[in-house]
C-alpha cells in the first residue's frame, strides 16, 4: 500500500461553518487544519474578517470541488450606514468622507423602493481594499502602501434585494437581504448607494446566509467542530452542495470512473440527469465519485475521486 503523505488523514468532505466576526477565512482554515490534522483544507468563497455566517470549508480531496462551489450565487444580510464613507467601504476602515443624509433616506417606502431597484446587472468598481490583482499587484497591499490601484468596473448581478429594516438613531441605517452573483462586493453596493443618494455610506455589518444550495441550517460553529469526536459526522452531502444532476453508477462503471475513463451518456441516467447538458455528479454507494460533463452522447471526466467523497453520516450509513 502506498504510504500516505504527511498531513493527509484520509478525511474528505464538505463542511459548512458559521464563521465568527474578527477572523479571516484563512484563520478558519487553519483552525480546521488543527482540528482535523488534515493538511489539505481550503474554502469556497472568502468572507471579510468583519463578516459572519456561512463559509464552505473543503477537507482532503474535496478541496478539488472549490471551482464548482466558488461560482455559486450567494445571499447576505447587510447593514448599510449612511453619512460616512471609509477607505475599505466597511466599518473597519478609516473615514474618508462625510456627507449629509437626505431626509428621504429615513422614509421606509423610499428605502424599500431604492433597495428593490438594485435588482439587475451593474458595473461595479471593486473596493480599493480587495484581493484583486492588476499588473502583478494586489489591490489591498497597494492601498495599504498609499498607492491604490485604479480598478476597472466589472459586471455583477443582483438577483434579489429587499429592505428588512430601517434605523434612524444614532445613524440612518438600512438593513437589507441581498442575493448576488459571484464576485459581487456588498461593501461596494453600500458605498454606491450612499453616492446615489448624494450622500455617503459604508457597510456596517454583514452575514452570509446562503452559498449556492447550502444555507446556515446545516452550519456548525468552530467550537462544535473542535469539540467533536468524529469530525466526519459534520460533513454535508456533496451532492447537495454541488446541486448538480446525479447519475448512479454500477460497480463496473465506478471502477472506470476512478481511472477517468469516458462513459456513454446513457449510463445510469434518469430524472434530471437524463436532460443534463453540462456537468453531472457521479454517485456510487452514496459517495461522490466524480464530476463529468456531457459532450454529445459521451460523459467526459472533469474531476474524479477514486476513493469517493462521503456525504453526511446518515447518508453513508444508509447506503
Helical content stands at: 10-25%
Class computed from helices, strands and strand pairing: alpha+beta
State the distance separating the first and last CA atoms.
Answer: 26 Å
Write down the overall geometry.
Answer: elongated
- Rg, please? 22 Å
Largest sheet: 9 strands, mixed
Overall number of strands: 18
- Low-confidence blocks of residues: 313-319
Per DSSP, what share of the residues sits in E-state strands of 2 or more residues?
25-35%
What oligomeric state do these chains adopt? Answer: single chain
Task: Describe the model.
This protein has 319 residues and is of the alpha+beta class. The chain has helices at 25-36, 66-69, 108-116, 139-144, 186-196, 222-226, 238-242, 251-258, 313-318, and strands at residues 13-19, 41-43, 52-59, 74-82, 84-86, 95-98, 120-124, 133-134, 137-138, 154-167, 173-180, 201-211, 214-215, 246-248, 263-264, 279-284, 287-295, 298-309. Strands 1, 2, 3, 4, 7, 10, 11, 12 and 13 form a nine-stranded mixed β-sheet that branches.
List keywords for this structure.
319 residues; disordered C terminus; elongated; 9 helices; single chain; alpha+beta
Compact overview of the structure:
This protein is α+β, with helices and mostly antiparallel strands. The protein has helices at 25-36, 66-69, 108-116, 139-144, 186-196, 222-226, 238-242, 251-258, 313-318, and strands at 13-19, 41-43, 52-59, 74-82, 84-86, 95-98, 120-124, 133-134, 137-138, 154-167, 173-180, 201-211, 214-215, 246-248, 263-264, 279-284, 287-295, 298-309.
Amino acid at each position: 500500500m502506498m504510504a500516505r503523505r504527511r498531513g493527509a488523514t484520509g478525511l474528505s468532505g464538505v463542511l459548512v461553518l458559521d464563521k465568527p466576526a474578527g477572523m479571516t477565512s484563512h484563520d478558519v482554515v487553519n483552525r480546521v487544519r488543527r482540528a482535523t490534522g488534515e493538511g489539505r483544507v481550503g474554502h469556497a468563497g472568502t468572507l471579510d474578517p468583519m463578516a459572519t455566517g456561512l463559509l464552505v470549508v473543503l477537507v482532503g480531496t474535496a478541496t478539488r470541488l472549490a471551482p464548482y462551489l466558488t461560482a455559486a450565487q450567494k445571499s447576505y444580510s447587510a447593514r448599510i450606514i449612511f453619512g460616512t464613507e471609509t477607505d475599505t467601504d466597511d466599518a473597519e476602515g478609516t473615514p474618508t468622507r462625510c456627507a449629509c443624509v437626505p431626509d428621504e433616506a429615513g422614509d421606509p417606502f423610499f428605502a424599500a423602493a431604492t433597495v428593490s431597484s438594485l435588482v439587475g446587472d451593474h458595473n461595479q468598481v471593486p473596493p480599493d481594499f480587495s484581493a484583486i490583482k492588476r499588473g502583478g499587484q494586489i489591490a489591498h497591499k497597494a492601498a495599504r502602501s498609499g498607492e491604490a490601484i485604479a480598478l476597472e468596473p466589472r459586471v455583477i448581478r443582483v438577483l434579489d434585494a429587499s429592505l428588512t429594516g430601517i434605523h434612524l438613531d444614532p445613524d440612518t441605517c438600512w438593513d437589507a437581504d441581498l442575493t448576488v452573483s459571484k464576485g459581487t462586493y456588498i461593501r461596494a453596493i453600500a458605498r454606491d448607494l450612499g453616492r446615489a443618494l448624494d450622500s455617503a455610506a459604508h457597510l456596517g455589518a454583514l452575514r452570509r446566509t446562503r452559498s449556492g444550495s447550502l444555507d446556515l441550517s446545516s452550519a456548525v460553529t468552530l467550537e462544535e467542530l473542535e469539540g467533536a469526536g468524529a469530525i466526519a459526522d459534520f460533513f454535508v452531502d456533496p451532492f447537495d452542495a454541488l446541486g448538480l444532476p446525479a447519475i448512479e453508477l454500477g460497480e463496473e462503471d465506478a471502477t472506470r470512473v476512478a481511472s477517468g475513463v469516458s462513459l456513454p451518456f446513457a449510463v445510469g441516467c434518469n430524472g434530471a440527469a437524463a436532460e443534463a447538458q453540462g456537468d453531472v455528479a457521479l454517485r456510487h454507494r452514496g459517495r461522490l465519485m466524480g464530476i463529468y460533463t456531457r459532450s454529445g452522447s459521451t460523459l467526459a471526466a472533469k474531476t474524479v475521486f477514486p476513493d469517493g467523497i462521503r456525504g453526511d453520516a446518515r447518508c453513508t450509513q444508509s447506503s
